[in-house]
Write a structure and sequence with these properties.
Layout: E1 2-9, E2 12-19, E3 22-26, E4 28-31, H1 43-49, E5 54-57, H2 58-63, H3 67-72, H4 76-80, E6 86-89, H5 92-97, E7 100-104, E8 109-112, E9 119-122, H6 124-134, E10 138-140, H7 152-176, E11 181-186, H8 192-205, E12 209-212, H9 221-231, E13 241-243, H10 249-257, E14 262-265, H11 267-273, E15 276-279, E16 282-285, H12 305-309, H13 312-320, H14 324-350, H15 354-365
Parallel strand pairs: 4-14, 5-6, 6-10, 10-11, 11-12, 12-13, 13-14
Antiparallel strand pairs: 1-2, 2-3, 7-8, 8-9, 15-16
Helix pairs in contact: 6-7, 7-8, 8-9, 10-15, 11-14, 13-14, 14-15
The structure holds 2-(methylamino)-1H-benzimidazole-5-carbohydrazide and zinc ion.
């Protein structure tokens, strides 16, 4: 995997990640395809909107249908019919947020499946073995995603385990890699000095890219913003920086300003299914009665399939009927909005006008025009 910085505008970077399955232009947004599908979308629609990489969750695919099954069927790209780059999360976060009866030992993490309660034990090596079997292009080490709030002593202890697990994941990866990439994950809660130590430890092991994990887990925005501002610039400048689970476009602007290159978040897809749509005039909730007879397109400045062919009145009607088409049309629009936003942001960095872009969008994004 090659990372080439094309332009810098302050700490913001406009770059390329070259993988064997295609190029990713950064800053990049990765739609979340948890069970191997970006909910309600076909892979062709995702590609047509303009996405170059999607995220899939190791935890879910390991539990169902199973990584050996996916391998037997020809690997994840064939299985889900997406032939571009795929990044798989290691499961650290899902085990923390979804599974039950979690037990963390120095060897690995024991948990019960949220699907059928079956007992599982994942080690740093096993997490990589699963991702290799799936055949993902960018893998994540197994870490402990520290919950919020967490005492400083707990975080300090957890960091030692996460650094040891990062080394074990990397060693296993080095023995079995074939033209894939592996990213390290920086934890450390909201404690800047612990985060700084984590960067030093994880960089010592050496990875193809570095992720900021353990954020957007319920901590106050100002803590998340401070950690991003102080820690992102300390992460290796010549490697991709990935902020996991973020996010809201205001947060994306702040993170890109401080040198983050990659993002994943369920906001555009999950909000679409709940009728919250992002438009150039701000966020709207399509179920509101004011749209009952509104014959105008969802967003006059958007040329996505949904905005070109349907009215707010029809989108509201589909939502009220809980029609499947509601999920599809809303998701198409929100993903298109995010994709265009990232495209314009990359161009703004390339033109040296990131600060103008950020100012221009800040007040749009905080506006709920209904
Ligand atoms: C939605 N918030 C959010 N925080 C995340 C943190 C991690 C992480 O630390 N993984 N090791 C992953 C996904 C996340 N999504
Ligand atoms: Zn649209």
């Amino acid at each position: 995997m090659r990372f080439k910085i094309l332009r810098k505008d302050g700490f913001a970077r406009n770059a390329l990640i070259e993988t064997k399955r295609g190029v990713i232009h950064t800053p990049a947004f990765m739609p979340v395809g948890t069970n191997g599908t970006v909910k309600a979308m076909t892979p062709e629609e995702i590609r047509e909107i303009g996405y170059e990489i999607i995220l899939s969750n190791t935890y879910h695919l390991y539990l169902r249908p199973g990584h050996e099954t996916v391998k037997k069927l020809g690997g994840i790209h064939k299985f889900i019919n997406w032939h571009g780059p795929i990044l798989t999360d290691s499961g650290g976060f899902q085990i923390y947020s979804l599974a039950s009866l979690r037990k963390i030992t120095s060897q690995g993490v024991e948990f019960r499946s949220h699907i059928d309660g079956s007992l599982h034990f994942i080690t740093p090596e096993k997490a990589i073995e699963i991702q290799l079997a799936l055949g993902s292009d960018i893998m994540m080490v197994l870490d402990e995603c520290v919950p919020y709030p967490a005492e400083k002593e707990y975080v300090e202890k957890s960091l030692k385990l996460t650094a040891d697990w990062a080394k074990r994941s990397k060693d296993y990866f080095e023995k079995h890699r074939n033209d894939q990439a592996v990213f390290g994950i920086i934890q450390g809660g909201i404690y800047d000095e612990l985060r700084q130590k984590a960067v030093e430890e994880i960089v010592k092991t050496g990875f193809d890219g570095y992720a900021l994990g353990g954020l957007s887990v319920g901590e106050p925005k100002e803590d998340m913003y401070r950690v991003i501002k102080n820690i992102a610039p300390l992460m290796p400048e010549e490697k991709p920086r990935y902020l996991m689970g973020v996010g809201d476009l205001m947060d994306v602007l702040h993170a890109v300003e401080h040198g983050i290159d990659m993002f994943d978040c369920v906001i555009p897809t999950r909000n679409a299914r709940n009728g919250t749509l992002f438009t150039s005039q701000g966020r709207i909730s399509i179920k509101r009665s004011e749209f009952k007879e509104d014959n105008s397109p969802l967003d006059p400045d958007c040329d996505c399939y949904t905005c070109r062919n349907y009215t707010k009145a029809f989108l509201r009607h589909l939502y009220m009927c809980r029609e499947i088409l509601s999920m599809r049309l809303n998701t198409i629009h929100n993903l298109y909005f995010y994709c265009r936003f990232f495209e314009k942001m990359r161009q703004a960095i390339a033109d040296g006008r990131f600060q103008d872009f950020k100012k221009e969008w800040m007040h749009v994004l905080e506006k709920n025009f209904s």
